[in-house]
Amino acid sequence: MGFPQHRPRRLRQNPAIRALVAENELSARQLILPAFVREGLSEPNEITSMPGVYQHTMDSLKAAAADAVKLGLGGIMLFGIPAERDENGSAGIDPQGILNRGIAAVRAEVGDDLVVMSDVCLDEFTSHGHCGVLDADGAVDNDATLEIYGQMAVAQAQAGAHMLGPSGMMDGQIGAIREALDAEGHLDTAILAYSAKYASAFYGPFREAVDSQLKGDRRTYQMDAANRREAILEAELDIAEGADMIMVKPAMSYLDIVRDVAEISPVPVSAYQISGEYSMIEAASANGWIDRRASVLESLLSIKRAGAEQILTYYAAEVAGWLKEGK
């Protein structure tokens, strides 16, 4: 009757014991809300493939940011959708472009009570939908794109962003952006590098969210899903170039990468629970196949358990509300 001597179930007997010994927990302060602001909208527009997520007007964006502060969220990551696009993504540099105006409006609304982050990338702003400008052969020109990224970064810092999120996966982008920021006196503007961003099939709903014009794919610059070791190289390069934080994207299909990067990184590591991950949970729960709340929380805990200290998720505000209620 003495066997087994070790009974791990003793520490699972009731909610109080489970809470006492839990190795990881979710915190609102470590959740970052991605938010879209679209030029020309008169009211928020729900994204068909992402139920409950909206393209915002300037007023509804400010309201979402104010709500994020009340909920104790750590940050908000802003994406802009312009009315007009061109080959070079000029609206992304324009101080009066939709994203830069959105940054300024949110910063005026929340001050330093919420980390205001912004996407440094051309894909929302180019007529061809790529993350960089194209050369004469139609390929993405890495070094020409870096120059534009530097201009975008300075414009976003001037608009009031605390932290910039370069997501284009151009070689040398962090160094180029850091140099441009420092040259203009924005020494305190931080960089959250999308260090390991994979060419994922799960970005589909995001393409709708930003009205992407992309034809083809981004496999010449985003990472191959088959590769693991390469993520360490990308992270180390970004850190060496001056990244203050680094990110893995997507999260759920790349938890091994999150773990690998977390183990070697001297800077905070984030992960992005992307649009396709959100939409899968929403679709399955809408059909009654899974418990929505339990699945959301489990998915986020898996990302935290893998080693992410911050999580970008479209569930950020809702989950923060649950945490505040003690549920």
Automatic annotation (TrEMBL):
<comment type="subunit">
    <text>Homooctamer.</text>
</comment>
<feature type="binding site">
    <location>
        <position position="234"/>
    </location>
    <ligand>
        <name>Mg(2+)</name>
    </ligand>
</feature>
<dbReference type="GO" id="GO:0006782">
    <property type="term" value="P:protoporphyrinogen IX biosynthetic process"/>
</dbReference>
<feature type="active site" description="Schiff-base intermediate with substrate">
    <location>
        <position position="249"/>
    </location>
</feature>
<feature type="active site" description="Schiff-base intermediate with substrate">
    <location>
        <position position="197"/>
    </location>
</feature>
<protein>
    <recommendedName>
        <fullName>Delta-aminolevulinic acid dehydratase</fullName>
        <ecNumber>4.2.1.24</ecNumber>
    </recommendedName>
</protein>
<keyword id="KW-0350">Heme biosynthesis</keyword>
<feature type="binding site">
    <location>
        <position position="314"/>
    </location>
    <ligand>
        <name>5-aminolevulinate 2</name>
    </ligand>
</feature>
<comment type="function">
    <text>Catalyzes an early step in the biosynthesis of tetrapyrroles. Binds two molecules of 5-aminolevulinate per subunit, each at a distinct site, and catalyzes their condensation to form porphobilinogen.</text>
</comment>
<dbReference type="Pfam" id="PF00490">
    <property type="entry name" value="ALAD"/>
</dbReference>
<dbReference type="GO" id="GO:0008270">
    <property type="term" value="F:zinc ion binding"/>
</dbReference>
<keyword id="KW-0460">Magnesium</keyword>
<keyword id="KW-0456">Lyase</keyword>
<feature type="binding site">
    <location>
        <position position="218"/>
    </location>
    <ligand>
        <name>5-aminolevulinate 1</name>
    </ligand>
</feature>
<feature type="binding site">
    <location>
        <position position="275"/>
    </location>
    <ligand>
        <name>5-aminolevulinate 2</name>
    </ligand>
</feature>
<dbReference type="InterPro" id="IPR013785">
    <property type="entry name" value="Aldolase_TIM"/>
</dbReference>
<keyword id="KW-0479">Metal-binding</keyword>
<comment type="similarity">
    <text>Belongs to the ALAD family.</text>
</comment>
<dbReference type="GO" id="GO:0005829">
    <property type="term" value="C:cytosol"/>
</dbReference>
<keyword id="KW-0627">Porphyrin biosynthesis</keyword>
<dbReference type="InterPro" id="IPR001731">
    <property type="entry name" value="ALAD"/>
</dbReference>
<comment type="pathway">
    <text>Porphyrin-containing compound metabolism; protoporphyrin-IX biosynthesis; coproporphyrinogen-III from 5-aminolevulinate: step 1/4.</text>
</comment>
<feature type="binding site">
    <location>
        <position position="207"/>
    </location>
    <ligand>
        <name>5-aminolevulinate 1</name>
    </ligand>
</feature>
<dbReference type="InterPro" id="IPR030656">
    <property type="entry name" value="ALAD_AS"/>
</dbReference>
<dbReference type="GO" id="GO:0004655">
    <property type="term" value="F:porphobilinogen synthase activity"/>
</dbReference>
